[in-house]
Write a structure and sequence with these properties.
Blueprint: H1 6-13, E1 16-17, E2 27-28, H2 30-49, E3 53-54, E4 60-62, H3 63-69, H4 71-75, E5 81-82, E6 90-92, H5 97-105, E7 116-125, E8 141-151, H6 156-173, E9 180-184, H7 194-210, E10 216-218, E11 228-234, E12 240-249, H8 252-255, E13 260-261, E14 267-268, E15 271-276, H9 281-291, E16 305-309, H10 315-327, E17 332-334, H11 341-350, E18 355-359, H12 361-366, E19 368-373, E20 376-381, H13 385-392
Parallel strand pairs: 3-7, 9-10, 16-17, 16-18
Antiparallel strand pairs: 1-2, 4-6, 5-6, 7-8, 8-15, 9-11, 11-12, 12-15, 13-14, 18-19, 19-20
Helix pairs in contact: 1-9, 6-7
């Protein structure tokens, strides 16, 4: 199992490290951060197509906002807070939802404006106990593909359906089809009336079933402001890790003074849907690494092609190929060190670079390159290498 442990893989693949100067927080190396950005851009494009507007909000906010939202009472032991001499204490955000309500509140809204869909790759901090930390799978600082929909009650089911379709499509594209779904119900310590909870639980369950889901019931595990559907993936050791969530909230918008003008010209409080497909992007990378034993698909590989000149005489041809591929937005890596070709091939394989491009004297003089991928090898004209790679890097589709 150590061979599939993402922490061991990350060290071999030079993806990230953690250290005592910032416990539970990730120092992303160039190769790891490329994977991070590729996944971020992947989900960003899916959400853009579904009408989400991307926003960016502060990480440090006044304690009074967290008290008003209810997060201070519920999460203060896990929040990083700062005491100020002027008495206005601040805290790093553990989630982005109050910030998105503040954007909604910054203008007068009409029922015609709804639903409003905000998305953010929100940097969050939670002071998790040190004993619970586990590589990328549990950290003190992480980014979420965080999204919130402010809508009318009659729009809830369509918005939940929109999210579930998004999650299933993205997970299938990444090779995950065995997904565990649970519905977490009202906890003992919660905000809102029983009537609000009765409506929210029934509405979310009905929406889930209309999406073809049959969630396992989890009494008492909901958020303090509403029930949630949880989507969990299992790692190779059989451990379940919660990734995607969709939460139905009829409490938080009212606590933060959100309202819109309805058809009758009267103020009405919107419903808020919280959701994320990946959850923590870092956690999702850890799961993908373990699922694939570090051998990522070509589109997601931090280095897509290893350029390997046989000798220094082919360095110029190799550099020309490198520059050409970079110009096409591909991710080549030069292996032109002083080591032997066999050792450089081993180094490229250790980094799980999926394609090898070998250039010898014969290839250089003919304007060709020997491309190896898996067990196959073919000679390709240098001018056609970019097209060859792009053909193999087609956008992932559901399997």
């Amino acid at each position: 199992m150590e061979l599939h442990d993402h922490r061991m893989l990350a060290k071999r693949l030079d993806l990230y490290h953690v250290e005592e100067h910032s416990p539970g927080m990730i120092f992303w190396h160039p190769r790891g951060y490329r994977i991070y950005r590729l996944l971020e851009d992947f989900i960003r494009e899916h959400m853009r197509r579904l009408g989400y507007e991307e926003v960016h909000t502060p990480q440090l906010l006044a304690r009074e906002l967290w008290e008003k939202s209810g997060h201070w009472e519920k999460f203060r032991e896990n929040m990083f807070s700062i005491s100020r001499e002027d008495g206005r204490d601040m805290a790093l955000k553990p989630m982005s939802c109050p910030c998105h309500v503040q954007i909604f509140n910054d203008a007068k809204r009409s029922w015609r404006d709804l639903p409003m869909r905000y998305a953010e790759f929100g940097q969050c901090h939670r002071d998790e106990p040190s004993g619970s930390l586990h590589g990328l799978l549990r950290t003190k600082a992480f980014a979420q593909d965080d999204a919130h929909v402010l809508c009318r009650p009659a729009q809830v089911r369509d918005e939940v359906k929109r999210f579930v379709g998004l999650l299933q499509e993205v997970y299938a594209c990444l090779g995950f089809v065995d997904i565990e779904v649970a519905l977490s119900l009202r906890p003992d310590k919660r905000s809102g009336s029983d009537e609000q909870w009765d409506w929210a639980e029934a509405e979310l369950l009905d929406a889930a079933r209309k999406c073809g889901l049959d969630p396992k019931m989890q009494p008492g595990e909901g958020a303090y402001y509403g029930p949630k559907l949880e989507f969990a993936l299992r790692d190779r050791m059989g451990r379940a890790w919660q990734c995607g969530t969709v939460q139905l909230d009829s409490v938080l918008p009212g606590r933060l003074g959100a309202s819109y003008v309805n058809e009758d010209g009267k103020p009405e409080v919107p419903i808020m849907i919280h959701h994320a497909v990946f959850g923590s992007i870092g956690r999702f990378i850890g799961i993908i690494l373990e699922e694939n034993a570090g051998r990522l698909p070509l589109w997601l590989s931090p280095d897509q092609i290893a350029i390997l000149p046989i000798s220094d005489a082919q360095h110029s041809a190799a550099k020309d190929l490198y520059d050409l591929l970079m110009a096409f937005g591909l991710r080549p890596r030069m292996f032109s060190q002083s080591e032997t070709l066999s050792r450089r091939i081993v180094a490229a394989r250790e980094l799980e670079v999926p394609v090898m491009a070998i250039i010898g004297e014969r290839e250089a003089s003919a304007g060709h390159v020997a491309l190896k991928m898996g067990g196959a090898q073919e000679m390709v004209a240098v001018a056609d290498v970019a097209a060859w790679l792009q053909n193999h890097v087609a956008q992932p589709s559901a399997r």
